[in-house]
Design goal:
Layout (H helix, E strand, L loop, with lengths): L1 H21 L7 H15 L4 H16 L2 H8 L13 H11 L5 H14 L4 H29 L3
Helix pairs in contact: 2-3, 3-4, 3-5, 5-7, 6-7
């Protein structure tokens, strides 16, 4: 399922890149849109504004896909030859923000596991899934905020 979901994200990126090309935005991707959406949230957890869009991309990708995909995209930014140089504090905050299982694929795992145990409660589990993802994401972001507060490089 994860491979299919990543393939769907690649398909969406291809469509967005094609549509963005008509308007002069050839680099339009789902990650870029998520970066713009999650940039204020990244700023609120302690990332400097000039790095918030990049951090927002990773937080959004973690929420939409999963943390493994987000960490894989984040890994090149940890080296010296990165296209965008991030501060050490930003790297630490992003590392904490990505460390958790609050994502949309977790809802499917939850439905599959608990839905087989209690099939009559499956609609209730599905309804609570989004709330659980939001609560888990806020928990991860709170840990990242606290870590950023105490870390000074």
């Amino acid at each position: 399922m994860l491979i299919a979901f990543i393939g769907l994200i690649a398909l969406i990126n291809g469509v967005l890149g094609g549509i963005g090309g008509w308007f002069g935005m050839e680099n339009l991707t789902l990650e870029a849109i998520l970066g713009w959406i999650f940039a204020p949230l990244a700023f609120l957890i302690g990332v400097p504004w000039n790095e918030a869009t990049v951090a927002g991309e990773f937080i959004g990708l973690k929420t939409v896909a999963n943390e493994f995909v987000a960490y894989a995209q984040f890994a090149p930014y940890l080296g010296d030859g990165a296209e965008v140089v991030l501060s050490e504090k930003t790297k630490a905050i992003i590392s904490f923000a990505l460390c958790g299982f609050a994502n949309l694929s977790s809802i499917a795992i939850l439905l599959g596991g608990l839905g087989s145990i209690a099939p009559k409660r499956r609609p209730d589990i599905a309804r609570m899934g989004i709330k659980a993802v939001i609560a888990g994401t806020l928990s991860n972001l709170m840990a990242a905020t606290i870590a950023g507060f105490f870390l000074s490089f």
